[in-house]
Design goal:
- The protein has a two-stranded parallel ribbon with strand order 1-2.
- Helix 25 runs parallel beside helix 26.
- The radius of gyration is 29 Å and the shape is globular.
- By secondary structure, the protein is an all-alpha fold.
- Keywords: Cell membrane, Membrane, Transmembrane, Transmembrane helix.
- It is found in: Cell membrane.
- It is a multi-pass membrane protein.
- Its main location: membrane.
- Belongs to the YccS/YhfK family.
Amino acid sequence: MYGGVKAAGRSARTRLRDRLAASDPGLLRLTAGLRTVGAIALALAVLAVFGADVPHLVAGAMTAMVATFAIRENESRAQAVTVALGLPVALASVSVSALLASRVVIGDAFFVVLIFCAVFVRRFGDRGTALGLIGFQVYFVSLFVDAKASALPGLWGAIAVAFACSAVVRFAVVPATSAGILQRLRQAFRARLAQLIATQTELLDAGPDGIEKTLEHLRDGTARLHETALMIQSRLEEGTPDASTARLVQRRIADAEIAAERLGLLLLTARSAERADTLTLHLPGAPAPAVGRSPAPGEATETLRRDLGALRTLVLRPPAEARGTALSHLRNRLLGYRDEENLPEATPAVQDVFRGLGETARAVMGLRIALDGPQDESDDTPATTRSREELDAEDAAIDAGEEGSPKEEPTGLRRPTTRAAVQVSVGSSLAILGGEFLSAERWYWAVLACWIVFLNTASTGEILVKGYRRVLGTMLGVVAGIVLAGLVGDHTWVAFGLVLLLIFAMFYTAPLSYTLMSFFVTAMLGLLYTLLHTYSLSVLLLRVEETALGAACGIAAAALVLPIRTDRRTNELLGTVLERLTDVTEGAVDQLSGGAAADLLDTARELDQALGDLRAATQPLTHPITPLRARRNTAQYVVALLETCAYHARSLAATAELLPTHPSIAADPRLRGAVRRTVRNIEAIAAHVADEDAGTEVETGPSIASLLEPDAAGVPRYGRITGRVLRHLERLDEAVVGLARPLGVPVRTPAQ
């Protein structure tokens, strides 16, 4: 009985851990919030012991926050160096601010120069970005607490304590190594993979009324799994002991992601009257296909539901609980479907789902071996043994690969950091002038708003959307600040406790919603004004006015000074995506046709990264507030088509990488001819995007799927794996032709 209770408790903890891992991959948001709150709390405690007054407590708390969130490097040693360099930068910044407090013109001029330098040094990577951010934010803190030259010794002490406390919390209380973060990201990948399989199970029973909702969950689950895979990719170099291990994890993550997405498509096809369109999984709001009452009659449906549950168990079961005949039985049964063992009596589409289950089980087994080490082999069936041998052969073929050649960086005003430094300096100058007309004491809020709308933005449209979100969050935060300030009254430590809570919420929600983050910031500032005895309704309303002014100045500077129009940026990124798509497709088909081996998974991830950049850049076009509805729909459609293309390209790359070791995959030179038209069409679209007067055309022709038809004697022309490659090429070709219409590229059909 006790053992059962203990097991149930462990199971509940495991489920909670998996949910948390899935909602916050790598626990990055939780770590950021805990670190920041811990650093502030420790700084407040130390300063209180030394008898610091409220202004010094506020300065210490805000500096501890800055010293914690500004440093984003992955390696602990690099973080320590940046912390050490950040302290003198902060001391110099607060000193200059205090000394120039009585010299308004010189102080404002220096602030603009500081802003320029803080953005300009981003070209030096994470460390330059962190030091620039520390310099700017500490200057702002000194303005916020109205620092004078006479108060400098106390402020130096508060800032030193803040940096020391930030370092203690970062390296001792809430440490986060690259290996540890990668381990948690792996756990998040498993949790999200299990959630996706659970959603796929729901697809079995979804009726006509519920299919739209289930399909939306399927899209979200697929996108979340892909997001986690990209996060793992960005951490592999620092989080693994060597390049071979990194490549092994990369391959297994890619295999599992592709297999899971393919399984979803096969299930959707089994529920549909015809083969499901891949675009259905990538286009928000795409109409769901007509579905029948059940994917297969009677026993086959129950078997499918049972096996999806077994697959989810294989994904989630911890290594310590993975031994024993029960789990081996599940694994062996699923892997047997790869060798056509025990396929139920059902339609061909449903039998394809069972084969997809087998392929996904193989990918999950490879993932477990890569992440958890060797597995129990005592109960292997011949089918499982063959899968292990394939995985071992693939592992042996992995090498470190070659380093890519360095990319040519733009110079002068073409460099993004230089352009942004000029823009934000002009915008801040306007914000200073306008802000001082609104308030000679609180003008710096306009500068802060202008500064923030330029962070992590690269086009006028992105700055416009960020400015709108900033103002909206600030307005809502003012209401919350009024309520909280009235409730807190003169209770200093209650106010500080609420400040800590709001700061945690700010950092935990920042990656999810910029509006929410701005809301929590403004509510927190209302409490800080209460602590400084400068709170009033007029002060909080002034903050809204200053924020709106600063956002407007930032938008004006972005639109008028060295502007990067959203159309221009999206076209540049679209060209990059098409170039990467060509590289992956040509490389994969060349290898499948018998050409030399290439580093296809890295190339596929470069495609994913380029597509992620494009997706972020199109947010101003797809934002709900955009008045151009037709343009919004076009942008969503183009991105969804490109995601479909990327899925098929990833699948081709993964299949090509199996070629040297997989006994059922053989090179077929005929594939080169099947892809030529598709590659020409991608290049034609890329040329049109670069120059609308290029005069290029997209060409249609016979369907690639026609190559799959049997010959006159009824004998298939291709094997099952080559047939799968041709189906991917067919879908890729259809998606590429589909891109022509929304992008305005003429389509030509050759005369018969």
